[in-house]
Amino acid sequence: MLYRNFLSQSDIDREYNVVSMVGNVSPYVEYDNSKNINTMKELISSIDEKYGAMLDETVDVFPSKEPNSPILVFIHGGYWHSMSNKNFSLIARGLVLNDITVAIPNYSLCPKVTIQEITRQNRASITWLYNNAKRFNGNPEKIIICGHSAGGQQAGIITTTDWEGEYGLPKNLIKGSIPISGIFDLTPLYYSWLQPKLQLNYGLINKQSPLFQISENKTPMLISYGDKESAEFKRQSEDYFNALVKRGYTAQLHEQKEKNHFMTFRDLNDPDSFFCQLVIEFIKQTCIVI
What we know:
The protein has twelve helices and eight strands. The protein has one domain (9-286): Alpha/Beta hydrolase fold, catalytic domain (Rossmann fold). Strand 1 (46-50) and strand 2 (58-62) form a beta hairpin. It is 38% helix and 18% strand. By secondary structure, it is an alpha/beta fold.
């Protein structure tokens, strides 16, 4: 056995290669590109703000019109080796129109860097946003993290950050986390077609798998996936949810109907969609400042 009941790389690839699951990915890319362009035209934005010294360390911010709004930090997907924050601008629309400031960080890609370095970069972007929140009508005490696919892994692992000890910031800096279609146990990817790009080892797998790093922070979680995703993607979310609940977390698990891997973030573009409203309600509940 390579992993669980998988005997070969092809068996693992069949469950984790999201492109092969849909056959032709072009219609999804074209749809998203159109929505990205429309969102950039419709919303006020501050593009390519520098949160660090590296060329890739930029963040696009879409401010709410209302001062002191919650901030949702959305970390893009692409299996840590492809795409950029520009491919996900569309998610800002539904949130900004519901008075949420949205920030979408960019980060360096594997194999130029490791997943651990990507985590460091995203933590740095959140630190920058905390210090610059008011520039974008944001409240630094109301930060939520969200992410899709590889960004879902990031949304999980960043909740384990020792913000107080390592950054001198409030211990409960992240008020809630919304991993969408995430990978929470990196182990199977070690045996997959992705290994040459990700350069995983057992130490990195342990440190960067949210399932193995559940902390005492007990950050509230809204975990979501599509009902048209592979059995493994569904199981990963369910296992993570169950592990969180067992550790005393407040967590929700939401299955999106008629959605595959490339569709589970899209409803954030529609301010009136069920999923966008579910996210808005989660933000409101977790961002109550006492």
